[in-house]
Design brief:
Helix content is 16%, strand content 36%. It has three helices and ten strands, in the order βαβαβββαβββββ. The strands form two sheets. Strands 3-2-1-9-10 form a five-stranded mixed sheet, with helices on one face. It has a five-stranded mixed sheet with strand order 4-5-6-8-7, with helices on one face. Strand 9 and strand 10 form a beta hairpin. The N and C termini lie far apart (35 Å).
Length: 166
């Protein structure tokens, strides 16, 4: 059986209409931070349950969004953080994230912050940045990632999609 999940980040207060087109079949949404508004979470919850973390643009005192979390999913543990505390090159950020979440036996690490889609398999851990699903910044395209899990074969498939803002 195929299970579908959405990985998004950096919505910056806006849910793009394109997301409403692709979210209906997903079971869970993972948001890698910079949500920038409870209304964004409420809008996304119309489609599926959501796990979200606080990014550098979210209110620092917002107790509803943790800086990081590990969630149990049928396909394994997922570590989620925004990634703004792991500055440096992509290589050093991935190394830091794997060091942070690796001991917690995660299969997937989700982060945002850079607005650039990214995927890497490191030490049997998938590290994914879906890019930014919010208004374009720094010349980056709008993007997100659909995750499919084949529960019969225990395979994960990542489908990165880009779309124009207008």
């Amino acid at each position: 059986m195929i299970h579908k999940y959405a990985i998004i980040s950096d919505t910056h207060g806006t849910v793009h209409p394109r997301l409403h087109e692709v979210l209906p079949p997903v079971e869970t949404i993972f948001h890698g931070g910079d949500v920038c508004g409870e209304d964004v979470l409420m809008e996304l919850r119309m489609h599926a349950s959501i796990f979200a973390v606080r990014g550098n643009m979210d209110p620092p005192g917002d107790a509803t969004l943790p800086l990081q979390q590990v969630v149990e999913m049928p396909f394994g543990r997922v570590g989620i953080t925004h990634g703004h505390l792991q500055e440096g090159t992509q290589e050093s950020r991935v190394k830091s994230l794997v060091q942070m979440f690796g001991p917690r036996d995660v299969r997937l690490i989700i982060h945002g912050h850079t607005h650039l889609p990214y995927f890497q398999l490191t030490r049997d851990i998938y590290v994914v940045n879906p890019g930014s699903a919010g208004p374009p910044r720094l010349g980056s395209p709008c993007s997100f990632c659909l995750l499919e899990w084949d529960s019969e074969r225990d395979l994960l498939r990542f489908d990165f999609q880009q779309f124009p803002w207008k």
